């Protein structure tokens, strides 16, 4: 399994949660998804950051290419929230050439794909 390079020193900016992912004004609905799916909000964002940090090396890392600013990666994590529910959270990372940091750039709850109802139906022609 590919693990995020230098995950032990990965930087998770607090502002990504307090001013974006969990903030009603700037999150484009992501704050609702985190709260409904996992029970995280602005009052307990530190627990979400801790949950992500503890799970960085537990899920495969996908390399997405270098945009000129550094190599980009993402990790889809299956997290258990403070409400006991489970959800898939995508975290995006950049190995920043300018700062030398492996840094979180985004985090959001991924929507579950509904199975195609037709694929589960077998038609018996006799």
How many runs of DSSP E, i.e. beta strands?
A: 4
- In what order do the strands lie side by side in the largest sheet? 1-2-3-4
What separation lies between the terminal Cα atoms?
47 Å
Q: Using the alpha-carbon principal axes, give the shape.
A: globular
- Estimate the helix proportion, in percent: 10-25%
- Rg from Cα: 17 Å
* Sheet of most strands: 4 strands, antiparallel
Could you spell the SSE succession in H and E letters? HHHEEEE
The poorly predicted ranges are: 115-126
Assess the beta-strand content as a share of residues.
Answer: 25-35%
Total helices: the number is 3
Number of domains: 1
Secondary-structure class = alpha+beta
Mean pLDDT: 87
Verbal overview:
The chain has 126 residues and is of the alpha+beta class. The protein has one domain (7-111). Helices cover 21% and strands 29% of the residues. The chain has helices spanning 15-21, 30-38, 45-55, and strands at residues 61-66, 70-80, 86-96, 102-109. Strands 1-2-3-4 form a four-stranded antiparallel beta sheet. A hairpin with a 5-residue loop joins β3 (86-96) and β4 (102-109). The longest helix has 11 residues, at 45-55. The termini are far apart. Residues 115-126 have low confidence and may be disordered.
